[in-house]
Amino acid sequence: MTQALRTFGRILARHWPALMAWYIAGEALHRVLIELAGFIGGLTTLGGLLLLPLAVAARLVSYVAMYLTVRPSLPHSRRTDAGGVREFGSATLAAILPFFAFYTAWGLLDADQIEFYQIASAIALADSGFELDQVGDRGGLISVGALPVTVLVIALIARLLFTRFAARLPRWTVVLAAYTEVLWTFMLFTLVARWWNGVLDWFAERQAVGWLQGIGDWFAANLAPIAVIWEGATWVFGILVAALIVPAAWLTVAGVIFGTTFDSTPSFARWTGGVARGTAMSVARTLVMRLEGLVAAVTVIWRGGPLLFGAYALAYAAWGLAEQTGTRGALLLVGAHESSFWAGFFPLITVAVAAVAEPLRVAIVATAYDGVIGRPHAGLDTRPSGLDAEASEVLVAPLDVEDEGSLGVVGKQEDEQDAVRRRLDDA
């Protein structure tokens, strides 16, 4: 516990200004990109749809920068070979999938898309003279259909092409590769969320659901104890989600950013076999390495032990209470005003409170993560974040199936490794 307190204090003493700066920069860029995507979406939905993922990426990049900033102050997780453009870029790529999953599950992706739609629809309606039949391909309405599916497929193909022709592309194409990664991930989670909402709506319209709701209403009206038990169970579930699942999710994101790896567990790459080569090998390598990193990051949750995770969950709950209290206090301090006033100042107030609170959250999560890594029996370690250059040595053997001319095949495959990693290595 003393070591954890020292680590926590060291993070805040050394990095709080930098953490605040990264958070404010990410939020400011997120806001600008939402407004810009909404404006473009009012003219063409496709154009706005291509810009909107960058708003989510702005927050992702800010959090990656915050966690990598505090890494030198973590006694068990810092590395002398970490740092630089390569680590930052590969950590961002590795964190895209878990961050988007978390972002979607907590409704933040939906909130961004609603705001995008409100801005775009207002512009489109005004330009069309408020004639709905004149809106056309404008207004920012994102639904399951040909447009998002087409964007997803094209972005995924482009990402595969960047991977396939890594050695032949100029260095600056790493930016396009990262963008296509963000774009296809954004569209995937958008389509999954839309599909899931459709499934829920379909179930809500079924007669059996209405029948079950009627039974529940009858119990609530006639058997008060059962209603109390049900409400209590719902309340407890919400508390468990807030107290356990949310901090566990942040611990997983931090584990991916820091590049968690197993000390002794065989790599997932050794499970890979078959006849993959060329582009398929590059894709398989990328997916396998990210799967291994994600599983290792999730393992951080329970390998710290119940005492460590319990202390972390309590600290996170205290942080959440303090953040809510601070926001409420700031709003009470400002006092009552017209709705037009709050429309402009409410986001500023919440961001100002978060600029103080978010460095605390990063310090809590990073301290807990370092505590797990420091446990002798955890069996976990860290590497420079993202895809490790040494991973190709593990994957070449199982993916190469030709005995004749194997050296040539291996050499060719090594020349066709992941595009983003190569460009970052050169940088």
UniProtKB/TrEMBL annotation:
- List where the protein spans the membrane: 21-43, 49-70, 91-109, 140-162, 174-196, 208-230, 237-262, 268-288, 300-319, 339-357
Keywords, comma-separated and alphabetical: Membrane, Transmembrane, Transmembrane helix
Top-level taxonomic group: Bacteria
Where do Basic and acidic residues bias regions lie?
Answer: 412-427
UniProt-annotated stretches for the region Disordered: 407-427
Q: What is this protein called?
A: Uncharacterized protein
This chain's source organism reads Microbacterium hydrocarbonoxydans
* Lineage summary: Bacteria, Bacillati, Actinomycetota, Actinomycetes, Micrococcales
